[in-house]
Structure formats: structure tokens, C-alpha cells
Amino acid sequence: MSELFERLDFVENPQYERIISDLLEQQYSIVEAFFTETEVHALRHDLLAKQEDDAFKKAAIGNKVNESVVKTIRGDQIFWIDEAKANASEQLFFTKVNDLIAYLNKTCFMGILHKEFHYAIYPKGTFYKRHLDTFQNDDRRKLSIVCYLNDEDWTPENGGELVLYLNNEGQEIPKVIYPFPGRMVIFESQLLEHEVKPVNTKRLSITGWLKTR
Ligand SMILES: O=C(O)CCC(=O)C(=O)O
Ligand SMILES: [Fe+2]
After folding, report:
1. Strand, coil or helix: what is 28?
2. Which terminus of the chain faces fewer neighbouring Cβ atoms within 10 Å, N or C?
3. What are phi and psi of 126, to 5 degrees?
4. Does residue 207 have its Cβ closer than 6 Å to ligand 1?
5. CATH topology for 35-62+74-212?
6. Is 196 close to ligand 1, i.e. is its CB under 6 Å away?
7. What is the model's pLDDT at position 56?
8. What is the pLDDT of residue 59?
């Protein structure tokens, strides 16, 4: 009986369905306007307020157990977002992310149990060299998510492209993605190596991971 109700409850979401088919076919998906201009503006405002409070830390390589700051690999500064202490715009962010997670778990049995998200600032001149989002001591990250919070007038000349290194039958194909505001990129954490090219203008984002177990 409960199964029947769950089924009646289910509403197919075309946006999520496209994300799922993209992930299956090409290991990544790009969603334009996942966040509205107003939402991006509010999140950008929060991020910049936290930066003024000096809340940001230089990002480390590896996780909390295995941590070292290596500027030659990555130059961004990060601030982990605590969902329990989320403000209005962050709550809205998590509402959307949680809805997507629920859909993935329901339709694809993804088994996402945990998530972690941080704000990131790439100051002018910084980058993140080619890497994989998994650590030797932790393989729970399944999907990486990046949401860009840059200004409306962001142009390709500002640099900071995300490059995903796709593999097509042994041949490497770089996929260049510009960090336009509102854009959300989701990709397979354990499969796709990627990098952030040097930025010419301060670059703002939220990055996170959906994790199993
Ligand atoms: O900001 C991006 O486009 C990607 C960031 C990234 O690769 C990371 O934080 O692991
Ligand atoms: Fe990454």
C-alpha cells in the first residue's frame, strides 16, 4: 500500500531527468539557471560578507585527516557551509540540492547519504591544477557539484574556466566550461579529472560533493 502511495506521489522532473541521462551518457551535466539571478545575487552577497569577516581559509589538498596547503596546486580560499546554521539564501540553496538528492536516490538508487559544500573564492592569478575529487583515504564522494556566483557581466576573458577531461575510447577530450552565474555543473567525482584555469578576475562559487555511506 505504501509503495502505491509513493508511486502516486512521484512527479517526473524534466530538469533532473536530463541531469541523470547526461551523467549516464557523458559523466557530467551542465544546468543553466539552476539558480535564478536573485538567488545568485543573495548567495554572492553572503559569500562576500563572510570574506569581509575574514572567515575564509586557504584551501588545502586532501581532506581534514590529510591536509596541507599547497599554493602551487590550488590558490582558492574556502568556507564550509553548515546546513544547521544556514541563513535564508543558504537554506534555499540546500532546499534545491536536497530536492535533487531525493530525486537521484528515488529514481537511480544512488544511495547519497551525506553532502558537503563550501564557498570558494579564486583571487586573481589563482587556479586549481588538474585533479580528481577523491582522496586516497576516502572514496565516498560520488558526484561533484559546482555552482557559479559570479557577476552577470562575467566574460570568457575573465579566465577561470573549468576544464573536464573527458575520455572517448582512449582519446582525451577537454570540455571547457565558463563559470557563468546561475550555472550548475555536476560530474562524476571518481571518474573525471578536471582543473580550474588561472583567473583574471576574482571568481566566486559554491562547490560540494554528494557522498555515499
Ligand atoms: O570551481 C570549479 O569550477 C571546480 C572546483 C574544483 O574542482 C574543486 O574544488 O575541487
Ligand atoms: Fe575538483
Report:
1. strand
2. N
3. -95, 170
4. yes
5. Jelly Rolls (2.60.120)
6. yes
7. 87
8. 75
Residue nearest to atom 10 of ligand 1 (CA): 133
Residue 179's pLDDT is 98
Q: Is 119 helix (H, G, I), strand (E, B) or coil?
A: strand
| pTM of structure | 0.91
* Residue from 211, 204, 208 nearest 56 by CA: 204
89 lines ligand 1 (CB under 6 A): no
Q: What's the gap in Å between 209 CA and the centre of ligand 2?
A: 10
Low-confidence residues of the chain, pLDDT below 50?
Answer: none
- Residue 114 sits at the vertex; the CA angle it makes with 161 and 106, to the nearest 5 degrees, is 95
Nearest by Cα to 75 from 210, 195, 186, 209: 195
The C-alpha cell 553548515 sits at 82
The number of residues making up the chain comes to 213
- Report domain extents, the chain: 35-62+74-212
Looking at residue 23, its pLDDT comes to: 97
191: cell is: 571518474
Query: What pLDDT sits at residue 89?
Result: 96
Ligand 1 pocket residue status of 189, Cβ below 6 Å: no
Position 24 scores a pLDDT of 95
Go through 94-123 and write b for each residue having 16 or more CB atoms within 10 A of its CB, e for each that does not: beebeebbebbeeeeebebeebebbbbbbe
Report, in angstroms and rounded to the nearest whole number, the Rg of the chain calculated over CA atoms. 17
- The 3-state secondary structure of 68-101, one letter per residue: ECCCCCECCEEEECCHHHCCHHHHHHHHHHHHHH
